[in-house]
Amino acid sequence: KSEVECLIKLFDTLVAESSNRFAAVGFDRNMFRDTLYSAFGMTDDMIMDRVFRTFDRDNDSCISVVEWVEGLSVFLRGTLEERMKYCFEVYDLNGDGYISREEMFQMLKNSLLKQPSEEDPDEAIKDLVDIDYDHDGKLSFMDFEKAVRDENLLLEAFGPCLPDIK
């Protein structure tokens, strides 16, 4: 109860500092992105946009206090199952229940370009396609879940969308 109360107070404080048209209702996309950056060090625009969409359950382009608390509950304290579902939603760009090769590339190109590595992005995608257990050319949640249960580090295979331990 005390944690939820703290999250609500934080929400109210952040909303009070804001001077946008959504302030009465909650966070708009920019305010949410500022919060992800300042509180969790997120810098990847695409990931931050996807996290916003995952939190914004009713798709009204505004994070309400309920969406804030529920989203942060998974974000900060979620079970492995909840975090898998959350990450999968972040990576499933078109919301069709699969992560296609194109979606993999979209998510990976940002994180790979930031890493000065010799690895070709196409090679990294080929490595990830190895977790396509049913070999249908796309990752279902079942494929993703099996891979993450085998190797937890794969949870953020397409980019960091969860906060680090600190």
UniProtKB/TrEMBL annotation:
Q: Which domain of life is it from?
A: Eukaryota
The residue ranges of the EF-hand domain are: 43-78, 79-114, 119-154
Stored Gene3D superfamilies: EF-hand
SMART domains cross-referenced by the UniProt entry: EFh
Q: Which Pfam families match?
A: EF-hand_7
Which Gene Ontology molecular-function terms are recorded? calcium ion binding
Which keywords does UniProt give here? Calcium, Metal-binding, Repeat
Protein name according to UniProt? EF-hand calcium-binding domain-containing protein 1
Q: Please tell me the species this chain comes from.
A: Eudyptes sclateri (Erect-crested penguin)
